[in-house]
């Protein structure tokens, strides 16, 4: 027991030190112009990322997903990923400056939106709906865009493992992204109540899941969270794919696609496994189009877990 308490205490000290270092770096970044600071962080991450342990996992995932791709090309994708992820972190500091989208503007800004008519449709219909996305581009911009169109969406998200960083991130997101639900026990009930009241929810569907629907992703077996499919089965709501694409020059394109057709069983009920697979297929199509904008260092296929068992 004493040893366990010591280990927990040491872990907390480590998490606190890491969090303080990150917060200090972000404060320094905030002192500089947005574009220069973000570009500098991008430059450094492309050099530091490849020497971290996570880079090995990213390269393993890329080799499994693209077995016929030359290794040099897979390495370039991983480098682009580090740049994208560093920019995502730095952009938190400058969100108020970066998000300049105005539905009534006549000139394009830093943020452009595809599918604005879908946002307006969802706002005016006053019916429950689900928007799903993946960890591509700056996916954090999507709920901000929804709020710009007058949509109040409850977003399910996975907090960082570091509790000190998690508290800071949650506080920052709450001020900019509306209602948030950490993905832990009770989250499904919160989303269900939201849909029951006729409102919308947002879900990330490309996260690692140890149990759930047996599906494939890039032709490899993977478990997929069945929550979205079960919510659709219960509330018969429409499902909309949405993604963020990073464009040259520090610009972003946010796309909301038309409602996705949900697979059904012979009796008309939602086919949970087929729906989970369809979500994977959509995310895979996005990742194949912009592979450097997805989080390849994420253990989506539970490789590390399988190595332990």
If you had to describe this structure to a student in words, what would you say it looks like?
The longest helix is centred in the first third of the chain and has 29 residues, at 2-30. A seven-stranded mixed β-sheet has the order 1-9-8-2-5-3-4, with helices on both faces. A two-stranded antiparallel ribbon has the order 6-7. It has helices at 2-30, 34-48, 53-65, 71-93, 95-98, 116-125, 141-148, 163-177, 187-196, 227-235, 272-289, 303-308, and strands spanning 111-114, 129-133, 153-157, 180-182, 200-204, 213-217, 220-224, 238-247, 251-256. It is globular, with a radius of gyration of 20 Å. It has two domains: 2-93, no CATH class; 105-308, no CATH class. The protein is α/β, with parallel strands linked by helices and 309 residues long. Helix 2 runs antiparallel to helix 4, helix 3 (53-65) packs across helix 4 (71-93) and helix 10 (227-235) crosses helix 11 (272-289). It has twelve helices and nine strands.
Oligomer: single chain
Distance between the termini: 26 Å
Largest sheet properties: 7 strands, mixed
Query: Which of globular, elongated, flat, extended, rod-shaped describes the shape?
Result: globular
Domains, number: 2
Mean pLDDT across every amino acid position: 87
Summarize the structure.
It contains twelve helices and nine strands.
What is the fold's blueprint, element by element?
Blueprint: H1 2-30, H2 34-48, H3 53-65, H4 71-93, H5 95-98, E1 111-114, H6 116-125, E2 129-133, H7 141-148, E3 153-157, H8 163-177, E4 180-182, H9 187-196, E5 200-204, E6 213-217, E7 220-224, H10 227-235, E8 238-247, E9 251-256, H11 272-289, H12 303-308
Parallel strand pairs: 1-9, 2-5, 2-8, 3-4, 3-5
Antiparallel strand pairs: 6-7, 8-9
């Amino acid at each position: 027991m004493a040893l366990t308490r010591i280990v927990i205490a040491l872990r907390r000290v480590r998490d606190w030190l890491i969090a303080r270092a990150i917060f200090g770096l972000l404060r320094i970044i905030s002192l500089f112009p947005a574009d220069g600071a973000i570009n500098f962080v991008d430059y450094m991450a492309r050099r530091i990322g490849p020497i971290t342990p996570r880079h090995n996992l990213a390269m393993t995932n890329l080799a499994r997903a693209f077995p016929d791709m030359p290794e040099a090309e897979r390495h370039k994708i991983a480098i682009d990923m580090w740049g994208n992820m560093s920019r995502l972190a730095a952009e938190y500091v400058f969100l108020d400056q970066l998000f300049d989208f105005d539905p009534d503007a006549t000139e394009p800004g830093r943020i452009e939106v595809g599918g604005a008519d879908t946002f307006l449709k969802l706002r005016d219909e006053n019916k429950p709906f689900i928007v799903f996305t993946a960890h591509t581009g700056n996916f954090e911009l999507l709920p901000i865009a929804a709020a710009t169109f007058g949509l109040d969406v409850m977003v399910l998200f996975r907090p960082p493992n570091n509790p000190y960083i998690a508290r800071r991130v949650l506080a920052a997101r709450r001020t900019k992204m509306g209602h948030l639900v950490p993905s832990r026990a009770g989250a499904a009930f919160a989303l269900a109540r939201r849909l029951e009241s006729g409102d919308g929810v947002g879900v990330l569907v490309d996260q690692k899941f140890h149990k759930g629907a047996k599906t494939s992703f890039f032709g490899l077996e993977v478990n997929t969270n069945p929550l979205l499919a079960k919510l659709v089965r219960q509330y018969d709501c429409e499902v909309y794919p949405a993604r963020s694409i990073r464009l040259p020059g520090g610009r972003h394109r946010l796309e909301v696609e038309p409602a996705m057709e949900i697979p059904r069983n012979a009796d008309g009920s939602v086919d949970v496994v087929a729906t989970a697979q369809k979500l994977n297929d959509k995310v895979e199509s996005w990742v194949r189009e912009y592979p450097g904008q997805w989080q390849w260092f994420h253990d989506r296929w539970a490789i590390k877990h399988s190595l332990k068992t």
